[in-house]
Amino acid sequence: MVDSEGYLWNARWGGSCVIRFSPDGSVDRTIDVPVSQVTCPAFGGPDLKRLFLTTANKNLSPEQLAEEKVAGGIFFIDLDVAGLPEAKIKL
Predict the structure, then answer these.
(1) Domains identified in the chain, total number
(2) Is residue 13 included in any domain, yes or no?
């Protein structure tokens, strides 16, 4: 997904983070998440400056589940940059 400044946000499955890439492809910032399987970012909130992150606990070993007690949860972080509204789909 792309924010209002044209930067791409990418969740890193197995990477415990979400990365913001600049339009030239360089890494602008990395936000660490306390679980390994980050699945999808989405902007929300009234000004679209809240980044929501879904995560998974699929195929984690019992040891990993013990370490990542919040795996499968939803996280959010407030940002200094707004996202873009999602396109409306006509059914």
Answers:
(1) 1
(2) yes
Q: Which residues of the chain have pLDDT under 70?
A: none
Determine, yes or no, domain membership for 39: yes
What distances in angstroms separate CA 1 from CA 35, 64, 87, one per listed residue? 21, 28, 12
> What is the Cα 80 distance to its own chain's centre?
15
pLDDT in the model for residue 90: 87
DSSP 23: T
pLDDT tens digits for range 63-80: 999 999 999 999 999 999
What is the DSSP annotation of 24-85?
Answer: TS-EEEEEE-SSSBEEEEEEESTTS-EEEEEE--TT--HHHHHH-TTTT-EEEEE-SS-B-P
In-domain check, residue 32: yes
Residue 13: which domain range?
8-78
